[in-house]
Write a structure and sequence with these properties.
Blueprint: H1 14-18, H2 47-61, E1 67-68, H3 71-85, E2 97-101, E3 108-110, E4 115-119, H4 120-125, H5 129-144, H6 147-153, H7 157-174, H8 201-217, H9 223-235, H10 246-250, H11 255-266, H12 277-289, H13 294-307, H14 313-329, H15 333-343, H16 352-363, H17 367-380, H18 385-397, H19 401-414, H20 419-431, H21 435-448, H22 452-464, H23 469-494
Parallel strand pairs: 2-4
Antiparallel strand pairs: 1-2, 3-4
Helix pairs in contact: 3-5, 5-8, 5-9, 7-23, 9-11, 12-14, 13-14, 14-15, 14-16, 15-16, 16-17, 16-18, 17-18, 18-19, 18-20, 19-20, 20-21, 21-22, 22-23
């Protein structure tokens, strides 16, 4: 069983080699190095391979129980990331994807391919939105300066061996034989490799400075970076990464780095940033989600109860929302309804409350009320992925699959890369007897989540279910394209395996 805090122990880049442990290192006959890639200045992971590694890691990571599959959180974090990227060097040309991890430790990490993980503990510990944005900006700084790619190819021979094993594991996965072998358990084994890809203090300071500029240009309060540094250094007993702080153990802080940011802040006029209300509601939800034991849950609810009498009207409403979410998740619907009603006493300006209200009505068997709430929410928040997915789920539970499919089509046009939409479409198509369409939708879902071999299998099943010549021809073309893509990925990976 994987460690429930596995993702939290993975520092930037280290998680990428965690998958390699699916193939034991002692099995290698001799160390396998990386190929020569030209001059030292060019000795970094090619972007194409870095993206491939990141996609493969995330395919496995989405199976980890600590991975948070929450559309509201995904949309919020990715929106914050894109806002910061707009002020990044080179015009923010790198692709980033930000996701949440259920772990109370204060931590964040960056993977190959622009994937950035944010621990729930980091969001919960942030005193304002600018503090959270400062950490994300720092991580984006590592992405845009390609510190991960350089670190993976300029480290020790041990790292080269690990990367070679990773390549072998990914090749097995592309062949269709490694998916189970490279399962989520590998994430819990990454601690032994965690030390191999550490960044230098110079790289950390470079990420600080790039992050600071992104923070400033995006309109966040740059003091948030100073405040977050102070909190992190205090949590690690001001011991420059040798204390107990999870983030400082992988992102070594120093008085020099702190002073550098303080001096930059002192040169700027005061910034009065207004926090997005959604920050407070998601913060309250994550306080509940990261609670694993019964005692943790009780402590979370107690903390939220204290927050109902503090801060602004939005903060108080968010605290009541968090309490309602906790009671709903534990099946105590009457208490959830009471807390949600108190949350509504203060102005509700986020979609999370409506999503919870619809789910609560569904849980209590009030399907019509759930549908009414869901439709009203969509009218109010037509750009919320969480509301869209909730409305589809309510329609499906009411067995209104035709309506669900009609609603899904414009949603897919609005968010063509949102994988969950295709999975929901497949469910309705299957129930309506459209088995070929259902498998084609699932193939799209697997393509978007990085499981190409599974997507090919779905398309093969679809082909076997039809006798229509034109449909078979279309499916043959899709299967051929995916096989070519798999072959290209295999060739790319084989470049990193030294010939015997």
């Amino acid at each position: 069983m994987p460690d429930s805090r596995a993702w939290g122990r993975l520092r930037r880049g280290a998680v990428c080699v965690a998958l390699a442990l699916a193939l034991p290192l002692p099995a290698l006959a001799q160390p396998i190095g990386l190929p020569s890639m030209g001059s030292a200045a060019d000795a970094e992971l090619p972007p194409s391979l870095e993206q491939l590694l990141g996609d493969a890691i995330m395919e496995q990571g989405r199976r980890d129980p600590t991975y948070i599959s929450d559309p509201d959180l995904d949309q919020y974090l990715t929106g914050m990331g894109r806002k910061l990227m707009a002020g990044a060097p080179e015009g923010g040309t790198h692709r980033i994807t930000v996701f949440g991890v259920r772990d109370p430790q204060i931590n964040a990490f960056t993977l190959p391919g622009g994937y950035i993980g944010i621990n729930s503990g980091l969001v919960v510990s942030a005193a304002n939105e600018s503090e959270l944005a400062s950490v994300l900006a720092h991580e984006i700084g590592h992405v845009v300066q390609r510190h991960i790619a350089r670190g993976m190819t300029q480290q020790s021979q041990n790292t080269a061996v690990v990367i070679a094993s990773l390549v072998g594991a990914l090749l097995a996965g592309l062949a269709g034989s490694g998916d189970l072998a490279m399962g989520v358990a590998t994430f819990g084994q990454a601690a032994a490799i965690d030390r191999e890809l550490g960044f230098s203090r110079q790289a950390e300071q470079e990420a600080d400075r790039a992050g600071f500029e992104m923070l400033r240009k995006a309109g966040y309060d740059p003091r948030g970076m100073v405040q977050m540094f102070a909190m992190l250094m205090n949590s690690s007993s001001l011991n420059e990464g040798k204390g107990g702080g999870a983030y400082t153990s992988t992102h070594p802080l120093s008085i020099q780095r702190m002073s550098d940011i303080q001096n930059r802040v002192a040169e700027l006029p005061p910034v009065h940033h207004q926090d997005d209300p959604q920050f407070w509601y998601l913060r309250a939800k994550l306080r509940v989600l990261q609670a694993v034991s019964r005692q943790d849950r009780q402590d979370a609810l107690l903390q939220l109860q204290q927050e109902t009498g503090q801060g602004s009207a939005v903060q108080r409403s968010a605290a009541w929302y968090g309490i309602a979410y906790g009671y709903w998740e534990s099946g105590d619907y009457p208490r959830a309804a009471t807390a949600l009603a108190k949350s509504a006493e203060d102005p509700s300006v986020v979609p999370e409350t409506a999503v919870l209200a619809a789910r609560l009505a569904n849980s209590e068997g009030h399907a019509d009320e759930a549908l009414r709430i869901a439709r009203a929410a969509w009218q109010r928040w037509p750009h919320s992925q969480g509301v869209a997915l909730m409305l589809v789920e309510v329609l499906q539970q009411a067995r209104r699959d035709d309506e669900a499919l009609k609603f899904l089509e414009p949603c897919i046009k609005q968010w063509p890369a949102l994988a969950h939409l295709y999975r929901l479409r497949a469910q309705s198509q299957e129930r309506l007897g459209r088995k070929v369409d259902a498998r084609r939708s699932m193939a799209k879902y697997y393509v978007l989540t990085g499981s190409l071999s599974t997507a090919v299998e779905q398309l093969r099943q679809a082909r076997d279910l039809t006798t229509d010549f034109y449909t078979q021809s279309e499916l043959d073309a899709q299967i051929r394209d995916l096989r070519q893509r798999l072959d290209s990925e295999r060739q790319l990976l084989r470049r990193f395996k030294k010939s015997d």
